[in-house]
What we know:
The chain crosses the membrane at residues 9-29, 41-64, 76-94, 100-118, 130-149. By secondary structure, this protein is an all-alpha fold. Helices cover 64% and strands 0% of the residues.
Amino acid sequence: MHIKSQKDFFSGLLFIGIGIAFSWGATTYNVGEGARMGPGYFPLMLGIVLALIGAVVLFTSLVVEVEGGERIGKWAWRPLFFIIAANLAFGVLLGGLPSIGLPGMGLIAAIFGLTIIASMADGKFHTRDILILATVLAVGSYLAFIVLLKLQIPVWPAFISG
């Protein structure tokens, strides 16, 4: 069998893999049944649907002819690195690293760090635009999670808020 679209082929494989992993992980919870759903029911169904979508995408990549074959290009290492680093930095800034004695910096600093680091993935760094975006995200997150949902997330660093 000949792969007619590499992008769709590998996307389908990725969807199938994540769907199977999600479904398998959901079986560790009580699944229940349709009338009395347990905590694992929704993740199990979501994983199954994701795997089915992946199977359809994989099938079409083998059957449907695409002009040029939609080859996969080179890996974009810079965006991959900065997006992963931004998420790791967000977690460290929000909760700290107690194992080495680094305190959490709170939600506002974590969002600013996340936005600034993630914006480096593009290579075009516009300080004013990034700071405006970070401010809007920080205010929106504060209103959504702290004010409306009343979640107990530290907003400011421990050495400021006590």
